[in-house]
Structures are given as C-alpha cells and as structure tokens.
Design brief:
This protein is mostly helical. The protein has eleven helices and no strands. The chain folds into two domains: 129 residues, no CATH class; 80 residues, no CATH class. The radius of gyration is 24 Å and the shape is globular.
C-alpha cells in the first residue's frame, strides 16, 4: 500500500500490540504535544499567549512537571498567572461598579468571575492541541477502511477498543461510511469490542484465581498484565 502522510500514524497505531489502537494514536499525540510545549516553542509569543490563556488540565500539568524542564514550566505558569490575575482584576472591577441587587433579585452579575474561574478549570492547551489532530486521525481510520483491503485486515486483527473509543468510532461511522460498508463496519466493530472484552475479562479472572492457594502452581497464562490491560479497556489509560 502506498503510504500517505496522514495514514502513517494510524497504520502505526494499529501495528502496535495493544488493547486499543485508538488509545495508541492519542498517546502518541499527547507525547508529541508535551515535547512541543516544553521544547523551544514555549519561548514563542503565539505559544505563550495560548498557554497563558488556556492553562492545563490536571493530567497534563503532571506530565509537564515530569518532563523535568522546571524553568520552562515555571516561565509558562508565571505568564498564565499574570494573565489570570489581570483578567480577575478586570472582572472584579466591573462587578464592583454594578449596583448591588436587592433582596428579591438574583445575584447573577457576580457569576461572571466564577464562570471565568470555572472555565479555566475546564481548559487545557495540551488537550486542544491533541483534539485538533485526533479527529483527523479518526477520519483517516474510516478512509483507510473504505479504500484499503490491507487496512481492513489490520482492523479485523486488532485486539478491539476501549469503552471510550469504541463509542467514538460507533458514533462517527455514519459520517464517513454508508450503505452495506457501514453495516459491515459496525458489525465488525461490535464483534471486536465484545470478543476482546471477554478475552480481557477471562485473563483478569485467571489473575484473580492465581491469588488462591489452590492455583499457586498453575501457569499464569496471559494474566500477568491483565490488570493494566483491563484499565486500558475501561478507562483508556495506557
């Protein structure tokens, strides 16, 4: 098959021996986004402007901290704090000029500041970077499924999908495929999901049994890593 630039990461994700190739795709995007953010780009005005405005979610601030570029992260967060303080002062000043509501009116005006803070809690520069590319990768899955028999074989041979990405593929399918190919895709997707959920469930069941003295001398089979594989299936964590 002749590779195209946008098909390479998708094919590579399906080549990895894991419980969800879509998780593999997103993990690779996440790693690249962390490296980009903590690389020389954090000194660029446009990047700093976006990180100052959006901040980071709990998960990604931890990954940024583990990157070990403490000076870079400190500079990024200093700019973010400067932006937040400036915005809060502006909102506080505006609220101070608003006439105090009476006993019988809702205090809706004071929610501007709270809404701003709540918005910060739900925004993340890394998440936005990932999402911009991730949905193009999802569209590429359907493109390859429609166009390439070699990819369809690869799709059928994968170990299924996690809950989140099974649901995503199922919802997105009708936007990219129609007619009989759509029915075939959904049938294969459902089968891959359920068969592999049962496989992981059985591995986890045997992992639990191995803690029983009656099975102490029995082989582990495929159960030694059953717990992290189950977490991948249930929570999309790899």
């Amino acid at each position: 098959m002749k590779e195209k630039l946008h098909t390479i990461p998708v094919n590579e994700a399906f080549d990895i021996d894991g419980e969800c190739p879509v998780c593999n795709m997103r993990k690779e995007l996440e790693t690249k986004a962390i490296d980009f953010t903590m690389g020389p780009s954090y000194m660029e005005d446009d990047v700093r402007g976006e990180t100052s405005r959006l901040g980071f979610c709990d998960k990604h601030i931890e990954l940024l901290y583990k990157n070990q570029n403490r000076l870079g992260l400190s500079l990024i967060l200093k700019s973010h704090l400067d932006r937040v303080i400036k915005d809060v002062e502006k909102l506080s000043s505006r609220n101070a000029r608003i006439e105090k509501p009476s006993l019988f009116k809702k205090q809706s005006e004071s929610s501007d500041l709270v809404s701003y803070i709540e918005g910060l809690d739900g925004s993340c520069y890394i998440c936005e970077m990932i999402d911009r590319t991730f949905m193009r990768y999802i569209a590429t899955i359907f493109y390859l499924y429609r166009q390439e028999e070699s990819f369809r074989k690869k799709f059928r041979a994968c170990k299924g999908f996690c809950n989140r990405h099974y649901s995503l593929l199922s919802k997105q399918a009708a936007k990219h495929i129609s007619g009989e190919p759509l029915k075939d895709f959904i049938k294969e997707l459902d089968s891959l999901y359920l068969d592999n959920m049962k496989r992981v469930r059985d591995d986890l069941d045997w992992f639990i049994d191995k803690f029983d003295y009656r099975y102490a001398d029995e082989p582990w089979k495929n159960s030694k890593d059953a717990l992290p594989r189950t977490i991948n299936k249930t929570n999309s964590i790899i």
